[in-house]
Fold this sequence. Notes:
Strand 8 and strand 9 form a beta hairpin. The chain has helices spanning 26-32, 72-84, 103-112, 125-132, 179-188, 215-220, 245-248; strands at residues 10-15, 37-40, 57-60, 88-93, 116-120, 146-150, 169-173, 196-201, 209-214, 234-238, 257-259. The protein is built from seven helices and eleven strands. Helices cover 21% and strands 20% of the residues. The strands form two sheets. A six-stranded mixed beta sheet has the order 6-7-10-8-9-11. The chain has a five-stranded parallel beta sheet with strand order 3-2-4-1-5, with helices on both faces. It folds into two domains: 10-123, Tetrapyrrole methylase, N-terminal domain (Cobalt-precorrin-4 Transmethylase, domain 1, 3-Layer(aba) Sandwich), CATH 3.40.1010.10; 126-269, Methyltransferase, Cobalt-precorrin-4 Transmethylase, Domain 2 (2-Layer Sandwich). The chain is α/β, with parallel strands linked by helices.
Amino acid sequence: MxxxxxxxxxxxxxxxxxGDPKLxxxxxxxxxxxxxxxxxxxxxxxxxxxxxxxxSELVYAxxxxxxxxxxxxxxxxxxIARARSGQIVARLKGGDPFVFGRGGEEAEALxxxxxxxxxxxxxxxxxxxxxxxxxxxxxxxxxxxVTFISGHxxxxxxxxxxxxxxxxxxxxxxxxxSIVSIACALIExxxxxxTPAAIIRWGAYEDQEVFSGRLGxxxxxxxxxxxxxxxxxxxxxIGEVVSLRSKLRWFGSPTREHSFFALAxxxxxxxxx
Length: 273
């Protein structure tokens, strides 16, 4: 762990895992217990903050698409400044910090500034949220590969869908505003409209909500008025492995299981609701 005699502090880039607070790792709990300040994100389960050292400073540094928040540059500068002041800093992120968590960007900034840092991997939402919805992302008889993509392109750039494999499991992170258009583009590029798909909101939380059906049914919602946008946080799973849900569902309430067509009528799932 950190040498308290060191003039400069240290930054831990910590993955909290998704939803269920018990998915956090022992190493993460250990680091939280010695940190002077915890900078935590929107998707971190608040129960995890109970592992922080007594009297440590808790700083919310989350970002939501619908609200202004702390910029990535400001977060980088805060991490560097806190460490240079001699503090031990826990940068706590939902899921895994190196899987669409901007942990790589923060690690680059820390390395360039000469700050001592360590990454503590977390259980990725791409695996755990699927599992909590009863979906194994790989299966010997159905899918031997899985591809993770972001549903939120940087600075409005177009999605690089032509480079995505035409088979196997596709996991789409941060897909609330884009999954319908992504479904349309996948079908245009050869994915069968009959491909099973699911969208999971608040995965691995007690109020987890799952919408499922076929890729073509999801794409048909492109015609919905007003323009359909699902409330985040949401992650989508596309592929034959989704068909296993009927046998493998083990978590969540049956009352929070819906078809894709419920999206067009559900005020709960429209952005701004």
